[in-house]
Each structure stands twice: as C-alpha cells, then as structure tokens.
Write a structure and sequence with these properties.
Belongs to the Rv0495c family. It comes from Polaribacter filamentus. With 189 residues, the chain is of the alpha+beta class. It folds into two domains: 1-18 and 126-144 and 161-188, no CATH class; 25-123, no CATH class. The chain contains ten helices and ten strands. The longest helix is centred in the last third of the chain and has 15 residues, at 174-188.
C-alpha cells in the first residue's frame, strides 16, 4: 500500500494486469453477485433525472423493477447501489445479439441521449474505492469471473491502473493519475 494525496492505494493496481474480455465473460460482473453497483450520493440524483432518457433502452423486467423500487436502492448495510433484478442482474443491464451484458446507461450515453457515461464504480472496475472520513482506500477487486480479463491483461501487458485510466481520472483528477503513473514507473524499476 502507498499513500497518494488523500488516498491509500493497493500496489495490486500497478502490479496486476487486466483488460476486460467481454467475448469470454459476457459481462458477468453486471449479472452475477449479490449487490448492485455502488453509487455515490450525487449519482442517485443523476439516475433519477436521466431515467426517462434511459428507459427506452431498458428491458421490460428492468423497467418493472426500477418503477417498483426506484432508480437506486439503499442496501441493508446503508450503501447506495443500483437495483437488482431477482437478486442478480443489475437493473440497467441489457444484452446484445451475442447475449453479452451491456449497460443501458452507457448505451444511452454512446447514442448521445445523455451526458453521463455510467456510475463511476462501474467505470473503475476492477478497482473499488471505499471512502473513509480522512482518506479513500483504492483497491483491486479480484473476482474469479474476471480470470479471462487477467489473462488478457497479462498477454497485452496492461496493468489495472492503465486499463481504468479514464475512471481514475474521472474519480480523482488528472494530477492524481499523473502522480500514480510516477509511482508505478518507480515501482516497476
């Protein structure tokens, strides 16, 4: 672990390799698990505001769940997250012709319907950020469903932090990312 500004960063994000391999996993991280995608407080408001523009992209079952429980939920532990369908699929999941899970929010963004790409936690994955009062912990979330992504990342020699560069810059800013790159360069020497 090392400190970077007000973050404590796991060395795994510079030591481990990762590149999503959707053709292998079919977007399993969006349809497996026991919780929705973590949300920041301001993202709950964004989801409420953009829902009418996302709705045409959603599956019927997604619309039913969202209209029943809301565009976001609070877990039993008090965490804000996206709702789930039957305790599995993120309510914002859609599928392409190959049955690969995609994000309806991101699809609406890609088609110019909205100006917000997706929750930052999704943009950062496989990095998870836990905010504490004095600092944020930045960790690599190892999940066996992403083994193919680890293999592809190793083959292409892409460390986790480079794979999620856009998400890290979005969350912490370009200056933070530039400092992370300096630490990574020293670390690998």
């Amino acid at each position: 672990m090392f400190q970077l500004g007000k973050t404590i960063v796991s060395e795994d994000i510079i030591e481990k390799d990762f590149v999503c391999n959707l053709s292998a996993c079919k977007g399993a991280c969006c349809i497996n698990g026991d919780a929705g995608a973590p949300l920041e407080k301001e993202e709950t408001t964004i989801l409420e505001e953009i829902y009418p523009k996302i709705k045409p992209f959603l599956r019927k079952k997604s619309i039913e769940v969202i209209e029943k429980v809301g565009t976001w939920v609070t877990s039993e532990s008090g965490e804000l997250e996206t709702p789930l369908i039957d305790g599995a699929d993120c309510a914002y999941v859609i599928f392409d012709k190959n049955k690969t899970a995609l994000c309806a929010i991101e699809e609406a963004y890609n088609q110019g319907e909205i100006g917000w790409k997706k929750p930052v936690s999704c943009h950062l994955y496989p990095i998870r950020v836990k905010d504490y009062s004095e600092f944020s912990a930045v960790n690599y979330d190892k999940w066996e469903i992403c083994d193919d992504a680890c293999t592809l990342g190793k083959e292409l020699q892409v460390p986790v932090y480079k794979f999620v560069k856009q998400g890290l810059v979005r969350k912490f800013g370009q200056n933070w990312y530039d400092e992370l790159e300096k630490v990574a360069e020293k670390h690998v020497k």
